[in-house]
Specification:
Elements lengths: L6 E6 L5 H13 L3 E6 L9 H8 L17 H7 L3 E7 L1 H8 L6 H7 L5 E5 L3 H5 L1 H12 L3 E2 L3 E4 L5 E5 L3 H12 L8 E6 L4 E2 L5 E2 L6 H12 L3 E6 L11 E4 L3 H9 L7 E4 L6 E3 L19 E3 L3 H6 L6 E8 L3 H12 L3 E6 H4 L4 E8 L2 E9 H18 L1
Parallel strand pairs: 1-2, 1-3, 3-4, 4-5, 8-11, 8-13, 11-12, 13-16, 16-17
Antiparallel strand pairs: 6-7, 9-10, 14-15, 17-18, 18-19
Helix pairs in contact: 1-2, 1-8, 3-5, 4-7, 9-14
């Protein structure tokens, strides 16, 4: 769990997006955080304190004069115990109050009295967000060092479409995780590949594989949270782009090679996670092949380019990391691949341990030998791999 030992105050203000705040509480607790919820009176018109108490496992505070605090100073005690305060949703009214230092209820007073960082996820009608008064308040909050998460663009409860939606709880969770992640790759540019490639046989058929792209996406997310500027070159997968990551969609190995080589020289780190097809059809059929037209088709295959080897051969190129997905003899094959391609690190995994799934087991092979990582989620393994890459780069 990525937030184990972290103490968070989650503030909830009045707005229809308050119903999403309950899911955020659940996600934060699931990641191991100790979550203390404080609500405004307006928030209680949308979601009850009982909901948040059940999800957080802690009593909810709504009143500045709450008698459960022996010293009647909930606004002091709650903020002093927190590593981070997250306000979601943050209404236009609450943004204005914080921007101008008002302390007219428990949550506003708590924010004013804090000695920990503050993140706010705005949520309001698009015209309220675009109003000059809100823009001034946002500018003042940013100048004061408050982190603003969103808002997003989309359909709103009023039926209008525009900027003002609160970010989804999963996106806010990612921002919280990024806040606590050491910035080991700050200032670095990371280029990754992920997913399979698709090598067309005819307009409807092709050669591909079962790669889900999950490991590559987890690494892109972990690198971004570690402070890197991340570009993800991805084959055909159905995954949402990690927050803050630039995604480039490709289809074939040649497409992927072109996208990578156009960006490799400007990158500090290249991580080749994609399961690139080794071969493609020499001549793609213009029309769909028919079973009743000449019997079985004969497919001539040609070898696809080795993208990792091409990047590793660049003069003054990026720090290269390869992946080796094998069915047996994993360590030996990973070592052989590292030496053949002349890269400092190869990450090995057995196909049966994680190909296409959410969990995996990895072995890291570098100049110092083999370093097995215990079975874990791909998100956890991605963070460990990013730490290993950062340490290797520092030692070099």
């Amino acid at each position: 769990m990525e937030l184990t030992g972290k103490r968070l105050v989650q503030g909830v203000t009045g707005g229809i997006a308050a119903y999403k705040a309950a899911e955020l509480t659940r996600l934060l607790v699931k990641q191991g955080a100790e979550v203390q919820v404080a609500m405004t009176e307006g928030a209680s018109h949308f979601v009850t304190a009982t909901t948040f108490q059940a999800l957080s496992g802690r009593p909810v505070f709504t009143d500045q004069w709450d008698q459960r605090m022996a010293n009647a100073m909930a606004h002091i005690d709650l903020s002093r115990q927190a590593d981070l305060i997250v306000i979601a949703p943050a209404s236009a009214d609450f943004l204005a109050r914080v921007a101008n230092g008002l302390a007219d209820d428990l949550l506003a007073t708590l924010v004013l009295a804090r000695d920990c960082p503050l993140l706010m996820a705005p949520a309001m009608n698009r015209q309220m967000w675009e109003n000059p008064a809100t823009r001034r308040n946002v500018a003042r909050l940013q100048a004061d060092g408050v982190g603003l998460l969103g808002p997003a663009c989309g359909e709103q409860a009023c039926g209008e479409i525009g900027v003002g939606r609160m970010l989804e709880p999963e996106d806010i969770l990612d921002a919280v995780l990024a806040f606590f992640t050491p910035k080991l790759l700050a200032g670095k540019k990371v280029l990754l590949t992920a997913g399979p490639t698709f090598e067309a046989i005819d307009p409807v058929r092709g050669i591909t594989n079962l790669s889900s792209g999950r490991m590559g996406y987890a690494l892109a997310r972990a690198a971004q949270q570690a402070g890197a500027e991340v570009t993800l070159v991805c084959g055909p997968v159905a995954l949402p782009t990690p927050a803050g990551v630039t995604r480039i969609d490709v289809r074939s190995a040649l497409d992927m090679q072109a996208a990578v080589m156009a960006r490799a020289a400007a990158s500090d780190i290249f991580i080749a996670v994609a399961a690139v097809a080794d071969y493609r059809v020499a001549q793609t059929a213009e029309h769909k092949l028919k079973k009743d037209e000449g019997g079985l088709p004969l497919l001539e295959l040609v070898e696809n380019p080795d993208i990792l080897a091409g990047v590793a051969a660049l003069e003054n190129g990026p720090f290269c990391v390869g992946f080796a997905a094998e069915s047996h003899n994993l360590e030996a094959y990973a070592q052989a691949k590292r030496q053949k391609k002349n890269v400092p690190l190869v990450v090995g995994n057995l196909i049966q341990d994680g190909f296409g799934g959410d969990d995996n087991r990895l072995i890291l092979v570098d100049d110092h030998g083999a370093h097995p990582l215990p079975p874990a989620s791909k998100a956890t393994l991605a963070r460990q791999l990013i730490e290993h890459i950062a340490h290797l780069m520092e030692s070099r």
